[in-house]
Amino acid sequence: MNFRELLGKKILFFDGGMGTLLQERGLRTGEVPETWNLSHPEAIRQIHKEYLLAGCNVVSANTFGVNAFKCKNLDCTVDELVTAGVRLTKEAIAEVRGECDHPMYSALDIGSIGKLLKPLGEISFDEAYDAFREIVTAGSRAGADLILIETVSDSYEIKAAVLAAKENSDLPVVVTMIFDENGKLLTGGDVASATAMLEGLGVDAIGFNCGLGPEQMKALLPQMTACCSLPIVINPNAGLPVVVNGKTVFNVAPDEFAQSVKTLVEMGASAVGGCCGTTPAHIRRIVECCRDMEIRPVTDKNLTVVSSYNHAVYFARKPLIIGERINPTGKSKFKQALRDHDMEYIYKEGLAQEENGAHILDVNVGLPEIDEPQLMQEAVTGIQSIIDLPLQIDTSDPEAMERGLRYYNGKPMLNSVNGKKESMESVFPIAKKYGALLVCLCLDESGIPETVEGRLQVAEKIIWTAAGYGIPKKDLVMDALVLTISTGKDNANITLETLRRIRYELGLHTVLGVSNISFGLPDRSRINTAFFTMAMNNGLSAGIVNPSSEPMMAAYYSFNALIGEDDQCMEYIAKASSQPADKPAAASAPKAGLTLDEAIVKGLAESAHEATVRLLEQNMDSLTIINEKLIPALDVVGKGFEEKRMFLPQLLMSADAAKASFEAIKAVLSKQGKSSESKGKIVIATVKGDIHDIGKNIVKTLLENYGFDMIDLGKDVDPQRILQTVQEQHVRLVGLSALMTTTVVNMEATIRLLREHGADCRIMVGGAVLTQEYADMIGADFYSRDAMGSVRYANELYEKGEL
Amino acid sequence: MEIRNEDIKKRVNIREIYRYLGYGAKLPDSSVDAMIREVLEDLVNVIQPRNLYKIYTCSTSGTIVVLKGANRTLAFESRNLASNLAQCRQVILIAATLGIGADKLLQKYEILNMTKATLTQACGAACIEAYCNILQEQICEEASSDGQRFYLRPRFSPGYGDLPLEYQKVIFEELECTKRIGLTLTDSLLMYPTKSVSALIGLTSNPQSCHIGKCRDCENLTCEFREPAE
């Protein structure tokens, strides 16, 4: 029988630790253990044999630490080390076959790359994927029976590894993760969120390894058995590490270890083994204790769930709020932001909805004239780097769907498929592959059915077609569809009845774009609120609504309290009491009378905005406001800063206030069909190898205020990319930042590259370790000792007409 | 070693935050000060501090520092480090991080409010300092238990003085930083999460040579962020 056939039916045993056994055999400090696959194959084969003879079913190849990043410093390739590693397990299995009659499998062992992924870290998702693909390709060619991804603790890296495994082999995939005692991955994920993601990606088994001993894992296992519908694999350390005389040791002896592991099997583990500090003796005792145990049956928990990198959100009796605001439909400012690639605008919409109580955010960035797949990828990764909520990827473009789902960290939601053959054929395979929770619209080739029966028929068709693609009912959420009551008096009734029957007769969860009900009517929130309550009462699981709408959210919290889903009405009370308090505070803002320059000098954004609106209402020309009020006020603060009478926080508060003023001006200009004038383009970047970008961001904020058009390339930027941007966009000024002595060399390299290619631009530099001498030495045109220095320099160039 | 977020907050030196923001010995006005305290609170709510450490016997000769553990010997070549550890027979190797939460908060504020982003940066630096200070004192206390009283030498990290950043690799491998506390090293030898510290700390029995304030030891007398003399 192959591994997949046995997994989850009969107890299976994995092997134990490798590191300490190698040290006992002479592995030296600093030596890479995997190089022993080539230099000491007999030692590795011997360890595998000891584990097999102890009774284990799965031997893990000595390939845990092999990857392209580590191999950079070795004289052997990933392919060589992996091929040799897998071959040694297979040889060991062949050699003991005469003595053992239990099933034995060779696992390609894959560990973490050891780099944090972007957007917060150093390497891209695709780079991580490529590194894993190289390992998978070599390992499956060498004949591994399964892929074990282990000791991983970043859900995004895990996703890259799983996709690489599934796209480049047909082998079973087992993922065991390293959680701390609080049940958290090192990057913040919890058991439920990681489980949801991995089930969605279609792995064969999941579980825990390393980090904890069997006793600590006992405390965590119930979290996994509660939500996991797959077989669970548990490979603990021999207790928690203890440092004795500078040496890390694990103290739990084989007997005690095996007793704890036995309890883990009773609790629901399907396969067990060991990790750090465990030896063939530990595995032998486990096998003796557990060999004849029946494992708990693996059951479908039938949960409808989405997850972000750090938490899962379940569809249940208490309805959910899906924030609808990240969507350009009918919003000219949003459309403009998309055309201008103003990601900040999108992120702010997301943050506001999170603040207002959304559980999931819909993300729609579709406009005919933009590259939607690219923008979807950027929006999804960008939003996830600052917002913890799960996302609903909303697009009709299959390529944008695929990109959004692929680069998503967690189990995503996808909006949407409908009953048309074409839609189902293009969407189901993508949804299945990435494990998306899929929104299904009850319409097909003949349009939106006018009757309840008609919509249910479409729903049923979608359900059985999805089943053919291996998508279970729990991964479908039905949209009963809302048509406005202004065009048909029964429209609400039909939707509500469809909802009720989908939820309670077909047994699926439901969503609705609630506000469509009032299209064409005045004062829409009245109808919307009433309809929202009725829909929730008829089985609506999640409303796609505007979380910033107070009446809608009031209806939501009231409903939960009324159906007994708000313990002691605590949430309702908290929301109700926060409302009135906000109003007087806003109304009594004492700074209302401030002039624009006072507001900017004091750094008060709201007052600056109000003052600007007042000036515009008095018909003051926007250019006059900028040149005679705003800039002089900024200069006052800038001068104060340079004379050390004012400090960085004040400078930035003034910058924020000026920004608020600009926004008021821009709003008026865009109404008149004009845009504000730019003083010139400036490229700004933190150089290659450097990850400190706050200084650069401060400079960018200030220069923006002075009317420059900033092209921010971010941190760790390749010199080539800076050159390319300068050439393509004909930029005349480049600002470079470096914080470390070690990265100033890359600043120098960037300057050299720009000069060599005759880029027609000035270069200003700044950063903690730089000095005027240093700047001169590396060939910069200007050294800015603080943020205001760059403003002065850029202004000078502008006035001379050199920008 | 388990240290609570609340303890870190209590230990944070607010003057140090002012200094990181360029105030020198001056004080911010009340509105800035209130914002600093608000951001510090936000930060303390999202950090997940983790640490690793091991203690070694230490010997120095010339510019070479040798740390001996049970089955490992680590050697460092640096004149500054050797003079820092000259009187120490024991040395702690530590790695500590506030976790990815601090970086996420920073990223969020860089979009919403640049002032708060700058304050987060300063508060984060003060928090990791406070965390390391608590940690090293507890380790020192533990090490001192058997009749022998130890005192701490100033923390010394790769990149200080003439100790090359390259030694980051040694510390990372020795403490298994990536696997055990999620701390990663970039190709340019900087750390992610960014609010992290790796260092050597000498334990000495000479109370005279002990103080934590490393800032005033630095040779850069014109540094804007220099701690004012007492």
Structural Rg of chain A: 30 Å
Strand order of the largest sheet of chain B: 3-2-1-4-8-5
* Overall morphology of chain B: globular
Distance N to C terminus of chain B: 32 Å
- The assigned CATH architecture of chain B is 3-Layer(aba) Sandwich
Structural domain tally of chain A: 4
Compute the number of helices of chain A.
31
Fraction of residues in β-strands of chain B: 15-25%
Order the strands across the largest sheet of chain A as they lie in space. Answer: 1-10-7-6-5-4-3-2
Q: CATH superfamily of the largest domain in chain A, please?
A: Dihydropteroate synthase-like
Average pLDDT level of chain A: 94
Class derived from helix and strand content of chain B = alpha+beta
Main sheet record of chain A: 8 strands, parallel
Count all strands of chain B and give the number.
Answer: 8
Report on the biggest sheet of chain B.
6 strands, antiparallel
Query: Which architecture of the largest domain in chain A does the CATH hierarchy give at level 2?
Result: Alpha-Beta Barrel
Helix content of chain B: 40-55%
**Unreliably modeled segments of chain A:** 581-590
Helix content of chain A: 40-55%
Report on the architecture of this protein.
Chain A has 803 residues and is an alpha/beta fold. Chain A folds into 4 domains: 3-205, Alpha-Beta Barrel (TIM Barrel), CATH 3.20.20.330; 305-548, Dihydropteroate synthase-like (TIM Barrel, Alpha-Beta Barrel); 591-671, Orthogonal Bundle (Methyltransferase, Methionine Synthase (B12-binding Domains), Chain A, domain 1); 681-799, 3-Layer(aba) Sandwich (Rossmann fold), CATH 3.40.50.280. Chain A is built from 31 helices and 25 strands. Chain B has 230 residues and is of the alpha+beta class. Chains A and B meet through helix 14, helix 26, helix 27 and helix 29 of A and helix 3, strand 1, helix 5, helix 6 and helix 8 of B.
